[in-house]
Batch of 4 targets.
Target 1
Amino acid sequence: MSSPIPKQNLPWWLYLKMLPSPKNLRNHPDLILEAVEQALVRARDLESLHAFVTLLDERAHRQTAAVRDGLRRGEPLPLAGWLLAVKDNIAIQDVRLTCASKILENFTSRFTATAVERLEAAGAIVIGKTNLDEFAMGSSSENTIFGAVRNPVAPDRVAGGSSGGSAVAVAADIVHGSLGSDTGGSVRLPASFCGVCGLKPTYGRVSRYGLVAYGSSLDQIGAFAHTSQGLFDLLRVMAGRDARDSSSAHEPPPDSRNQFSAIKHSLRIGIPEEYYAHGLSADVETAVRSMISKLERHGHSIVSVSLPHTKYAIPVYYILATAEASSHLARFDGARYGFRSEQATELTDVYELTRGEGFGLEVQRRIMMGTFVLSAGYFDAYYRKAQQVRRRLLEDFSRAFSKVDVLLTPTSPTTTFRLGEKLDDPLTMYLSDVLTVPANLAGIPALSVPIGNDSQGLPIGLQIIGPHFAETMILQLGTEVEGLRDGVSS
Amino acid sequence: MPVTKEDIRRTAHLARLHLSEAELDSMTETLSRVFDDIDQLHEVDTEGVQPLHHVLDLRNVLEEDIPRPCFTREEALGNAPDRTEEFFRLPRVVN
C-alpha cells in the first residue's frame, strides 16, 4: 500500500510499526489477531492525537475470532483483513455513541448502523470509534468534549473536520480504513488535510440508518482509505438500498472488483473556473494545475466550464443545514435519554438548561440559525429562497455534466491551519468548506485524493466530482491520479 | 439584515435553549455577521424557480405495514436520565 505522505515529514514515533495490508492479513488469517492487538496498542500510543474516543478491545477480539472461523469454513468475506474505525456519530449496538457532545456523553446505542453491519458481515473488524466536531458541526475537529484532533503530519495543526478522528486513524496507519459522514465536506476536507483519500458518495447511495442526523437532505456516510481502490472495496459492500432508510437510493452497488481497472478511454475533464478563486493558495493551485497537465498528457481532454452559482453555496448551506439541524436536535430534551441538567427543577428548565449546558457553542449557534430561518416571518426570505438557489446550483452541475464527464478542483483553498486559528471566527471557519459544500447541495459524489505537499510539507488534496452514481468512474480516475503522483506509469 | 438581541432572545426561547445575557450578546453579534453574509442570496433571481427539497427523484416511498420486533421496555428506558419503575421521570407539571 503506497503511503501518500513522505515519512520524513511525520514525527518519528508515527512509523514505529507498519500495519500489514488487508490482502496480507486475508492470506494469513492467523495474523489478524496480532494486527488487531497492534492497532489497539498503537491507538493508545498515539492518544495525544485525540483520534479515538472509544476503543473496542473485547468486541474486536470477538469479531476477529468470527472472521477466522468464517474463513476456515470457506465463507467469501471480501473484507477479511480490513481493520476499520468508525466516526462516533454512527451507531454500533451496545457501544457508547457520543457525537463528541456532553449531551450524549453516556448514551449507549441499541442498534448498529446498516453501513457498519454490512462491512462487518463482509469480514471487516472495527477497533474503535473516532473523534469529531460535536454532531458533525465544524471544519476542524476542534469542537469536541474529547480534545481537539491533531494532524499527524503536523501535530500543531488541525486534522480538518468534522470527521477528523477517522482521517487521522488512517493517516497515522492505525487502521486500513474508516467511516465518516459528509454533510458539507466533513470527509473530504480532513482527507485533504491529513493526506489520505476520502469519498462522499452520491446522496442516498449508502443507507443513513444509524447515522445521527445533522442535515438529513445533505448527510451521507463516506469513507477514508490510503487508495481509491480501497474506497471502492468498502463502497461496494456498504452501498445499496436499505428498507430502514426510506431515502436510500434504489441503485445497486457498484460492479464487482474485476470491473475496477484503469480507465481505458479518455475522459472529458471539466475545470470550473469559480473554484480557482476564493483565496486559493499558490502552492495548492500549482499542484492541482500540474496534475491537470499530467492528465492531459495522458490523453484526457481538459475543458473549461462555469458553475455560476458557486458563490452562493455557503449561504444556502448554512440556511438549509442549520434548519434541518434545529429540527433534528429538538429531540434532545433531557427527558428520555442523554444528559439532564442537575439545576432543573421545573419542566421548562429541564429543556432549556439541559440544552444550554449540554450543547457546545457551535451547535448552539447552528440551532439558533436554523430556528431563526424557520421562524414566522423569515421562512420565505431564507429557507424557501435557499431551496430555490439550491435548485440553481443543481442546474449548474447538470449543465456542466452535459459537456464533461468529471470536474477537477482543489478540495480546499488552503492546506491545514493551526489549532485555534479559526475557532473564534465562525465566518472564516465556514469558508473552509467553500469548495466541498456544492457537491452536497447537488447530492453528487466527490472524492479527495492527495496529490503532494505544499512548501511546508502539508498535504494537498485534489477533488474529483462526478454526476449522480458515478462513484466507479471518479475512483478509477483517482487511481490514475495516484499513479501519476507516484510516478508509476499506468 | 441586522439581527437584534430581541430576535435572538425570542429565537432562543423557540429553541428551548437557555442563554445568559452575555451569551445572548455574543450570539447577536456573531449571527448578525453570519446573516450579513447570507443576505447575498437575495441577489439571485429565483422568480418561478421550484424549491428543491430532495436531490433524488424519490417520492412517497411506501412500505407494507408489517409488525417487526422492536426495543423492549428495559432497552428503551436504558438511557433515561431518571426513571421510576417503567416510566421516564420528569418534574411535576400539574399540582
Target 2
Amino acid sequence: MRHEGNRVRRLRAFYELKNIGVYAFVPPVVVTVLLPAGFLWLRATNSTAAAVFYYANTGLQLIAPLLAAWWMLFVTKERVEGDGRELLYLLRRKGESLTALILIGAYLALLSPFALLVVSSGHCDLSVLLIIYAWCLFLASLAFWTAFVFHSSPPALVAVLAFHIVMLPLLSALRAFGATAWSGGEDVVPTLCLAIVSAGLLVHGEIRSRRFTG
Amino acid sequence: MIRIENLRMSYRKNEALKGVTFELNPGITGLLGPNGAGKTTLLRCMLGIIRPGGGEVVFPPGMRMLHREAGYLPQKYGLFKELTVQEALEYFGVLKDIPRAEIGCEIDECLHKVNLLESKRSRVGTLSGGMMRRVGIAAALLGKPSLLVFDEPTAGLDPEERVRFKRLAASLAKEHTVLISTHIVEDIEALASQVVILDQGMVCSSGTLAETTALAEGRCFLAPDSLVDEGSDGYYVARFVEVDGRPLARVLACTAPDGFTPTTPTLEDGYLCATKGIA
C-alpha cells in the first residue's frame, strides 16, 4: 500500500512537472549543463583562481537557490489559479507537501554534480554546501507556503525574490550567532534554522492547500 | 435518493445559501437560477469543496464517500493544458484511486462516451472550448461515480456543441444521477425530469418539469405590445413575440389585465413566476 502511495506521488509529481511545459527544463539545463560547463571551461582556460571562485559562488549562492523555487512556482500556480481547480479540491488531494519534497529532492539531486565539482576543486566547503542546500529547501518551501496561504502565485514569486535578496545578510547573522554558541556552530545553526523553518512552511502550506478559495 | 437538508453558507456578512433543502432523484435534475443565486456555492457545499456553515447532505445507505462517488464538471475547465488528454485523465484517475491495471481501459471508455477517443494524444491546451469541456466530463466520469454534477455545462458553447452535450447528458442519465446547474432554461427543458429553482440563496420551487411549468398556470398572457408598459408594477413582461405577424408581448401577472389573453405557459414562464414572486 505504501509502495503504491509512493508510486502515485511520483506519478503526480511527474505530471505536474510535465504540465509546466518547456519551462520545466530551465533548472536541469542550468544546473546540470550550463553551470558545470562554464566552470570546467573557466578551469580549462587557466582563468585566475579568483574568477573561478567568483563563478562557483555565484552559481551556488545566487542561481542555484533561486532555481530551487522555479518548479514550485509553476506547480502551485495550477493549483491556486487553474481554471476548474475546485475539481482538485473535490478529490481531496493530500500530501501536497510530500509532492513538493519530491520536487525539491529531484532538484537537489540535479544540483549535486555541479556542487560536488565545486567542492572537489576546493572552491567551497562541504559545510557551506549544506547551508546552500538548506537555502534551496527554504526558498522552495517558501514558494509553496506563500502560494497556498495567499491562493495566488505572484506573492510567492515576490516572497522568493525578497528572501533571496536578504538571505546572504540573514545567513551571515545566523552564522555569527552560531559561532558564538559553540565551535562549528556557524555552519550548523543556519542549516538547522533553515531546515526547521522549511518544515514548518511545508506543514502549514499542506494544511492551507486543502482549503479551497474560489 | 440524495437529500440536501438546510444547507447554509455565508461569505463574511453575505448569506449565499439560506437553508437550502431539496432531493436529488435518479435521472436529470436541473438547478435553475439567475446569476448570483448561489448555484455554484450550493454545488461546492454539496460536494464538500467548501465547508457549509450549516446543514447536511444525506446519502443513501451504502454510498461511498461523496468525493469518490461524485463526478464534477466545474464552470470553467482548463486544467493541465500541457498534458495530453490521456495523461490529464490518468492524473485524475490516480487522484480517484483507480487501480493502475484498470486506468487505461477506463480512460478509453470515458473518452468513447464523450466522443474524444481520437483526440486522446492531443494536448489539452490545443483543444477547442467544447472539446475541453468534454475532457472535463470524461474526468468526471472516471471512477464510475453514481452522481454527476455539471456547473453551467453549456455556457460559451456553440449550438453544435450544446446539442452534443444534451445528447451526452441524456445518455449519461441512464446510468447516473445527474445534476445540471444553469441559468439557460431551454437546456433544462430539453433534459431534466426534476427542476429546482434557486434565487437569492433560497429554493423558490422544487418539482417535476410539469409542476414547475404549472407555477405559471393562469398567470401567463399575451397582449398587443401597444398595450404593454414594461415599467408596470402590475405584471412582468417576459419577452416580445410575433404571432401571425402581430407583435405581442408575453406577460406574467397574478390576474389578467384588461385586453390580455391567457396562453399556455412554458418552463421559462414557471421559472420567471418563481423568481419574480408572481404567485
Target 3
Amino acid sequence: MGTYEPKIIAFLCTWCSYTGADSAGTARLKSPWNVRAIRVPCSGRVSPELVLRAFDQGADGVIVLGCHIGECHYETGNHRAAKRIPILKSLLEFVGLEPDRLRLDWVSASEGERFANIVTQFTEDVRALGPIHWKEEDRESSDLSPTFDISLRSNGGEQPPEIPMDWEKATQEIRDTARTLLANQEVDCVIGYEVGPRGWTRPAFVHNPDDVDRLVWNPHCTHNLTRYLREKASGNGEEEKRVAVVVKPCDSKSLNVLLGNNKFTADQIHTIGMICPGIQEGAGFGNGDSATLQERCLHCGERIPLVYDTLIGDPQSVPDFEVSPRGDILESWSGLEPAQRMEFWLSQFDRCIRCYACRDACPVCDCSPCLYERDDSLWTGMNISLDQKRTFHLGRAYHLAGRCVGCNECVRVCPMDIPINLLNEKLNQEIQSAFDYHPGFNTLPSPLTTVLDQEN
Amino acid sequence: MGRHKNIELLTYSEIESVSGFVGNFEITVRKKPRYIDEDACTGCGDCADVCPIDVINSFDLGLSTRKAAYRTSPQAVPNVFTIDKKGIAPCRDACPADQRAMGYVSLVAEGRYADAYWTIRRENPFPSVCGRVCNRACETACSRGEVDEPVNIMGIKRFVADWAYDHREELAEMEDKSLVGTSFQKNPEPTGKRVAVIGAGPAGLTAAQDLVHLGHSVKVFDALPKAGGMIRVGIPPHRLPYERLEWEVQQIVDEGVDLELNTWVDDIPGLLDDGYDSVLLATGAHKAYKINIPNADHPDNWLSLDFLKKACLGEELDLSDRKIIVLGGGDVAMDAARVAVRLGHPEVKVVCRGMRAAEHEIREAEEEDIEIIRGRVFQRIILEGDKIAGVECLKADVGKVIDGKRQFTKLPGTEHTIDGDLVIWALGQEPDTSFLPDDVDWIDEDSYEMKTNQEMMTAIKGVFSAGDLRVGATTFVVEAIDEGHHAARCIDRYLRGEKGIPEPPEMPVATLSADEIDRKMQNGTISDAERTSMGTIPPQERANNFREVQVGLTEEEARHEAERCLHCGLCAECLECVAACDREAINHNMLPTFEKFSVGTIILATGFQDFNPEVAPEYGYGALDNVFTAMEFERMINTMGPTNGEIRLKSGKKPESVAIIHCVGSRDQKYHEYCSRACCMYSLKISQLVRDYVGAEVHEIYRDIRSFGKGYEEFYNRTKAKGVHFYHGRVREVTQDNGRLKVSWDESYYDQPDHIEADMIILATGFEPQPDAPEVAKKFGISLGPNGFFREKHPKLAPVETSSEGIFLAGTCQFPKDIPDSVAQAEGAAAVALSMLDQGTIALSPSVAQVSANRCAGCGQCEASCPYDAVAIVDGVSNIDIYKCKGCGTCVASCPNKALTLIHYNDKQLIAEIRGALS
C-alpha cells in the first residue's frame, strides 16, 4: 500500500477557488497532483448527485471549494452549497464513508496560499484513510450478512395514549361525505379505503355516488393515499380535476409537501381528515389482526390531520400528549465503526432487487422518468450490481431530504425488508437540528433550496 | 451638466426598487420631500435667514452649523434650498389643536416673541387661555422628558401670550403672520354665504374666525352676557384674568365676526329659513348634575356651574359665615372650592371618591385652607330643621380609573357625617339640549355623543355640531379649538362643495431614539438646565381676592426654558420661512413622491465613506484638540468653509508646525488591509498648501509614498523641495504634552527621529465602502467584494461591468481611487453602457439554464433556489427567464430529476470530466 495515491476530485468555482488555484500556481506554491480540478460556475452548481457520481467513478475524496459566504459572484449560490454538501456528508457518514472524504470550504481568488494548504491537507487526510471499499469488485466474499447485531426497532419509550374510535360511525361519515361531494359534483373522484375480496384493506377510487358504500375506515387503513393524488387530479392537458382524499395525520404531512411542490393546487383537493388512533402492525397484507400499533404510529405525535376540509372523528377525544422521538434508534448506530456501518448497509443494498416498489409507493418521489431509471446510464447503470443499487438508494435518500414525512410506505412495500426508511430518518434528523425544519408541517420550500438564515 | 437637456438629475431622491433586466430595467425612485418647490426657489436664502433652528453642518464635517432650511453648499446643484425635517415634532402631534409647540419654543429661544405669537395664533385664537389652562399633552409627549423633565411648553406659551398682551399696540402695527401657510385670508373675497354659530365658546369662536377668514359671513349668538363660554363662566378669575380673554375675543370680532350676546336661540330650523346657509351648534356642556340621594333637592344644594357662573360674572356673594361642602374631585370642584374661599373665607371642604384635579390646584387649594377628604361615597344630605347640617358619607376603597369610571368598594359600617350647611355639587356636567327641536333624535344613548356624520353634520342638513355639545362631555380648551377648526372646514366644504378646504394631510411623526437624544444632549447646543416651573403668589396675598395665583415665567426664564428643547423634528414648523419666501415656494405639507423610470442600463457611482478615525483611538481624534481629518482640513481652507479659508487652531492662532499622518485606517490589519490609493497624493497637496498659506513646518509620517500616477512623482519631489519633512514610520500614538501634540512612531529608519511635536495634526484617512453598500448591492442584484466595495465582473477584463448584465460601476464605489481614475472609469462605464444602448440588441451569455419539460415534475425546488428569481413554475413545469438567468447552475443542482441543465456545464460534460479525471 506504500504506493497508494488517492484520487481526488475538486469542484472549483470559476470565480474564486479556480482562480485561487491559479494564484497558487503563479505563486509557485505546491499542490498535490492527486487533486483533479473540475471547473464549475459556482459551488451552487455542484449537485450532490455529481459528488456521488465522483465517488462511484473511483474518487477517494471529493472537495468542493466556493467563494466565502457573502462574496458569491451569484449573490447566494454558495449558500445552497453550504446547506447541501453537509447534508450529503451526513448521509455518507451514516452509511459508513469516513467524513474526511468529503469537504466543503471557501477560497477566494486571491487566496492562493489558502488553496494550496486546504488541498494539501485534504489529500493527506484522504491518503491516511486509504481506498474506499464499497465496490462490488473490491469485496472478497459475496456473503454480506452483517457479523454484528443492530437494532432496527426503537425500544419503545413513552407510549401514545389510546384514542377511542367508533370505526362504524366514522365509516358512515366518510360515506356520507363522499356521497355529498360526488352527488354535488364537487369532486370527480374520492380516494379512500375499501376491503378487497381477500379481506385486505386496500385503496379505493370511487367516481359514482352510488358506490360510496365500498368505503371503509378500519385499523388496517395503512396506505398513504396522497400518492395517487397527482394522477387523479391531473387533467392530462384538459381541465384539471377535483379529488377528495381520505388522509390520516401522517398523510396530511405528505399532502403539504405535495402542495409545496406544486403537484396540484389546494382548491383541487377536498381533504377528508381522519382522527387517527394508529394503524395496526401488518396492515396492508392480510387482516392484520395483530393488536399492536405500527412502530411509526407509536412515535407519531399527531392524531389530528394538519390540513383537512372535512374532519371525521372527535378532536376533543385527543388529549395533549408527547411521544418519544425515533432518535434513539439512530443513536444506537453512532457507536458503530464506519466499517461496520458500511458492512451493514452494503449487505442491505445487496439484497435489493431494484423493483422500485419503494419509489413507487412514495407519495413525494414522483419524477418521471426517475433519474436512476434512465437508459443513458448517466447517473447509474441499469443492472443490479451493488454499485448501482447503492447509488440508487443514496441518491434517492438525498432527494427525499427535507421532503420525506416518514410515512414508511417504502419499507412496508419492500419485498426484501430493507430498512431504507432509516436513511430518510437520518437526513430528516440532520435537517431538523440544522434548520429547525419539519417536513410536511407547512408548504414552504425545503431549507436546502433557500439562503442561509444569518444572511436574511 | 445638470442643465444638459438629455440629463435629468434627481437630487434628494432614493432608489426604492429595481426590477426587470438589461435593456428593460424599471426603477422606482422615491423623491424625498424638499418642502420647497425646486422650480420656484431662486436660492436667495431668505428662508434660512429666518429659520430658528441650528443644525450641525455635515457638509463642513461638523465644523460649523447651518439652519434647518439650508442648501448643502453655495455650489449645490440644483441651487435650491431644502428644509431638513424629520417629521412633525411629538409635541405638535400630541396637541389636539395641532399647536406648533416646537416652532414657538424655538422662536422664543431666539427672543423673537412676536414671531412666536403669530406661530401660536395660527392654530389657536386663545393663547392667553391655553397658556394658563391646559392638560399639556405636548409636555407628556416631549422627548426632553426622557432626559429629565419635559420643556415647560405651557409656561412658554403663557409668557408669549403675556408679552403679546403687554405689546398689543405694537403688534397691531406689525404684519399679522398668523394666517401664513394656512388656507385662510384676511378680508377674503366674500362668498355670500351666511353661517350662524350658536355658542360663543372656544369651539364656536374658533369656527367663526376660520369661516370669516374663508369669506363667509358669520354671526355668533350666545345666551350669556359675556363671550367665551365655559372659559368665561367656568374658569374663575384667579386662574384667568378676563381682560386677556376679552382682548382675544375682540380680535376675533375685529376680523369681522358678528357677535350677539344675551340671545337664547331655540329655533334652529328657523335660522335656516331666515337665510342662514348653515348653522353650527357649539353650546358646550353647562349643566351640572346631582345624584339622587335623600334631601338633594334642598335649596342649599347648589350646582357648581351655576355657582361659578354667578361668581365669574361678578355677582356679589358673601359666604363668610357658611360651612361649605363641595362634592366632587375634578377641576370644577377645585374651582368651586377656591372661588368659595375667596368669597368671605368660609370653611370649605372638598369631599370626593378620588382626586382628579391637577396637582398644583390641589396644592394651592390646601394652601388656601381648603380641606380635602378623599375616599368617600355620599349617602344622604342630613337636615336639621329646614337647614342642611351635613353630608352622611361612607368610606370607600378607591381603585384606579377604568374606562373613565373610578373603581371603588364601599366599606359598610363606616357611616359618618361631614358637617356643613351648604353643598356645592361638582360631580360633572353635561350639555343642555333643551334648545334643540324635539322631533329629531339628537343624542347617541351609548356614548352621549351627538349623532353626526363624518363631516360633523347633524340629522338636519346644513346644521353642524362641535365642541362639548357634540362630544357630550367636558373637554379641554385645546380640544374645543380643534373641534372648531374641524367644524369650519366641514362647513366650508358643505358650502362650497369640492372647492372647500380639505383636511390637512397626516404627516409622519419624528421620534428620537435614546441614542439620538444622548447625542443631541452632548453636542452642546441644548441647555442641560433643569425645568423652570411657574410659581404662585403667596397664599396670604391671594386668599381674599381674585388676583391671578400663578406667576408667569420671566423673559429670561422663558428663553432658558426654550433652550432646553431637543428639536425632535429638526424643522420647527414655525412657518417663518413661508412668511419670508417671496416666491411662495415653501409647502410644509409635502409628502414623498414616487416616480418610475424605464432605463436600459444603469451606472452605479455611489462613492465611498471617509474612514472615521474615532474608532482608532491611537490617533487621538475626537479626544485631542487640533487633530483634524484631511476632509476637515479641506473644508477649513475653502473660502466658503467654517473659517473662511484660514488655517487656524482651535485657539485661533496659526499653527507653526503641522504633522500629517498617512495610512489612517488603510494598510492596517486592525482596520482595512487595502491601500486607499488617493491619500498619499492628497497629503502631499495638503503639505504644499500649508507651506504656501501659513509657512508652517510640515512633517509627513508615511509608510510608503505611493506616487504612481502621471506627474505624481514630480509632485512628490516638488513637495520635498518646499522643505516638507518626511519620516518613514508606523504611528504608535498621538499624545498631548504641555499643550503641544506629540506624534510617536515605530519602524523609523536609522538616524531618524521617532517622534515630533506639532500644533496641528492632519489624518490622511482612508476610504471605506458606503454603509448601505450591501443594501444597494441587493437592490441592484450585484455582489460585494471582500472589502465591501461593489465587485466588478472581472478585475482585468471587465473592470466596469458587474455580474448583473447592464449594470456598471464608476468611481470609488468599486474601490478607492483618485479623481483621474474615477473619471476614466466613469467614461469607460458610460462608453460600455452607450455601446450597449446603441446596438439596441444584447448578446446574452450562452451559459444559461435550460429545462427538459418532459422530465420536469414541477416540484419547484429550482424556483426556491434561484438567487435571481429567474426560474418560475409555469403550468406545472419549470420555466427559465434567460434574460435574468446568470448561469450559476444552482437550480440545476437542486433539480432531483436533472430536468434542468446548464449550457456549457451540463451533467454529461461534468460527468465525462470526472470520468476522464479519474481514469
Target 4
Amino acid sequence: MESVTPSHYLILALCLFSIGFFGVLLRRNLLLLLMSLELMLNGINLALVTFSRTSLNLDGSIFVFFIMTVAASEVAVGLALLVALYKKRRSVFSEDMNLVSN
Amino acid sequence: MVCSKHPVSAAMFMIISLVGVAALFVLLEAFFLAVLQILVYAGAVMVLFLFIIMLLDVGPEGGKASKIKLISGLAGAFSISLLVVVFLMMVQSSGWLGEASSWAPVVSTAELTTGDNLSFSTSVKSFGYGLMTKYMLPLQVSGFLLLAAMVGVIVLSKKGEEGTS
C-alpha cells in the first residue's frame, strides 16, 4: 500500500485553493464569498505546513501563525462592513452592491 | 461547501473541512497549529460567521445572473487549469516531489537550534522562541494589525448606527 507523501498534501492544498477560488468567483452571497476566502487561506496554510515539515524548518509554521492572525482580523472587518452594507441596502448579494447603474 | 444553497449548511460544511485540515496538521506533527486552527477558525471565525448569518437572516440565493456566472466560471476553470499545468510542470522539471517521498524524522526538542536557523519541532516552546527572536517585528506588526482591525470594526458599527437613526 502506498504511503502518504508530501505531494499528496500539496495536491489536497491545491484542491482546497481551487474550491475556494471557484467559491469566490461563483457565489453571489457575500458571506459565502468571505468563507471561500477562508478556504483559500486554509489551502495555503496546508501547503506551508507541508513545506515546513518536509524541509524541517520552522519558518513556514510561523508564517501560518501570522496568516491565521491576518485572516481573523480580515473576517472581523469584512463582516462589520457587510453588516454596515446590509443596513443600507437590505441585501447581502453581490449584484445589489452597485453604486452607479440601476 | 461551495455548492450548498443555504448559508447555514455551507457554514457547517466549512466547519467540517476546517476540522479536517486541523487533523492533517496533526498528521504533519504541527500540533500547536492544529490546536490553533480549531480554536481560531472552528471556534471563533465560524461562530462569527454563523452569528452574522443568523443575524441578517440570509436565505438561499436565487437563480438569476447566470450569464455572469458562466463567464466567471469559464475564467475560473481556465486559471485553475493554468495553475494545475504550472504545478505539474514544476513537478516534472525539478523532480522535487519524487525525491521527498519519505518524511524526514523530526528533531527532538532537546536539541533546539539557537540563532536564525529555526528547525522544525513539535513543541510550543520553539514556536515562542522563533516568534520572540527572529519574528519579533512581524509579531508586533500583527498585534498592531489586530488593534487596527478592532478599532475599525468599532468605528464601522458605530457609523452604521448613526446612519440609520
